[in-house]
Amino acid sequence: MTARVLVVGGGGREHAIAWKLARSPGVGEIVCAPGNPGLAELAECVPVPVSDLDGLVRLATDRKVDLVVIGPEDPLAAGLADQLDAAGIAVFGHTAAAARIESSKSWSKEVMAAAGIPTARSLVATDVASGRRAIAEIGGDGPVVIKADGLAAGKGVVVSGDRAEAESALASFFNEGAPGQTVVIEERLTGPEVSILLLTDGETVRMLPPSCDHKRAFDGDQGPNTGGMGVYTPTARVDAALLARIEETIVRPAVREMARRGTPLRGVLYPGLMLTADGPKVIEFNCRFGDPETQVVLPTTVGDLGAWAMAVANGTLAATPMPTGSGAAVGIALASGGYPGTYETGFPIRGLEDTAADPDVIVFHAGTRRAGSGEIVTAGGRVLTVVGLGPDLVTAHARAYEAADRITFAGKMMRTDIAAAEVAVR
Ligand code: AMP
Ligand code: GLY
Question: 344: which of 129, 318, 324, 388 is 20 to 30 A away, CA to CA?
Answer without folding.
Answer: 388
